[in-house]
Amino acid sequence: MKQIFTTLLAIIICVAAIAQNTGRLSINSTHSNSLVVVIDNRSYQLNNNRDILLNDIPAGNHQIKIVKQIRGSWRRNTIIYESNLFIRRDMHVDIMINRFGRVFIDEQLLSEQYNDNNTYNNWNNQNNNPLSQAMNTTSFDQLKQIVSNERYENTRLTIAKQAISVNMFSAQQAKELISVFTYEANKLDIAKTMYPRTIDKNNYMIVYDVFSYSNSKDELARFIQQFR
Known about the structure:
This protein is of the alpha+beta class.
């Protein structure tokens, strides 16, 4: 019995130690362009009025990439920062991107006295991170119906792009929404717009089926390669 108790106590201590081996990460931007931040293959949209706030991020190395997006000019999408980011235990790492696209990193020790007015998302709780989940089926079906009901293609583009800017999608949803459009150029425009907002980019190849011309497929492939 004593041996079992000792073993259980050791397990509890180990679990507690692992649970506390975390830090905090915040990212904010004053850049005029929309930015996509990719942390360990998790994508977040970062605008100049929105911060990324992650609590309980595991201590250790994390891959981070920050991509600048210029609407209507995909060829100028550029990576402004790419590196390994080391999060130390019980440290708050803050990343700031200034208006010129320069990246500054600072850190501060977390303590019981440390506090601010921000609400932090838990790294392990996907429900607290809506940008890691595709739009739910009901909402997506409603969006697709609304876009389909519009008579004019330009109005369809406007509505679709507005919805895309604030939601994430699966590759299958992207394919279905792109298929709503009639003109090849508009299909290509939406395909480029949705790619950064797709959670399963590895499956984006299914989108190529909606195009009638090989040059459209080639242009989308070049865009995806440039984005990476």
